[in-house]
Amino acid sequence: MIELLKLQKLDMQIVTLKERECELPKQKDKYAIQRERLALEMKNSEDRCKRLLQEQRECTGDIEQRQEKIVKYDGQLYSIKKNEEYKALLYEMDLLKKQISVKEERILALMIEHDESKEALEADKERIQGELSVIDAECAKIDTELDGLTAEREALEKSRQPLAEKVNKGLFSRYERIRKVRTPAVVPLNEDVCGGCFMAVRPQIVNEIMANDKIHACQHCGRLLHFLHRPEVEDS
Predict the structure, then answer these.
(1) Which fold has domain 2-164?
(2) What DSSP string describes 65-129?
(3) Terminal CA-to-CA distance of the chain, rounded, Å?
(4) Are 66 and 100 in contact (CB under 8 A)?
(5) Mean local confidence (pLDDT), 197-215
(6) Distance between CA 231 and CA 226 in Å, rounded?
(7) Which residues, including other chains, have CB under 8 Å from residue 70's CB and lie 6 or more apart?
(8) Where along the chain do its domains lie?
(9) Strand order in the sheet with 224-227
(10) Overall pTM > 0.70
(11) What is the pLDDT of residues 16-39, one digit of tens each?
């Protein structure tokens, strides 16, 4: 039984390491989500600057088109003989000048907005780069820990076979079957109660376990029982 308990202790260490190995990549997934969020923030900040510049270009283009029309209409004034047509063309030219004035005011507002958005973009770059540096450092820590866990687990797995060979074959087979469905597979007998399911064990079985006459399994949960207070068990 003492060798089996040592084996179970080793198996539980291996299981704990495997669980941690599975958990660590999930932490990296969390950081991957943060990276995506930061990338989206950066894109939104850059897109805002681009939209403002694009609108400035469009306004400038509209102004140029209206200025060309004004020049064209101004050249037509001298060939118009009817007073009504002359006034209508002057009105159209005045309307174009007003539209140009509105566009010019919009360009000024856009320039101010663009300057502000550029400052915000630089601030976002600095902040996001700082957050990414922290994420990179945390992911590096995770990778280092994961490498260490993997190496430790593999070393324990290599040491398992020699330890398993010291266990009685029949007992080892029972242990392997049980631990596939219940862990730990070997539990202490606490007075007359199973240490796994906490159900009462029959008195005869209790006496045989305490006397080390026979290895029994709990009639309720099927786990193997051992007497906790035997000196050799306590030493394990």
Answers:
(1) Helix Hairpins (1.10.287)
(2) HHHHHHHHHHHHHTT---HHHHHHHHHHHHHHHHHHHHHHHHHHHHHHHHHHHHHHHHHHHHHHH
(3) 10
(4) yes
(5) 88
(6) 12
(7) 93, 96, 97
(8) 2-164, 169-235
(9) 193-194, 186-190, 224-227
(10) no
(11) 999 999 999 999 999 999 999 999
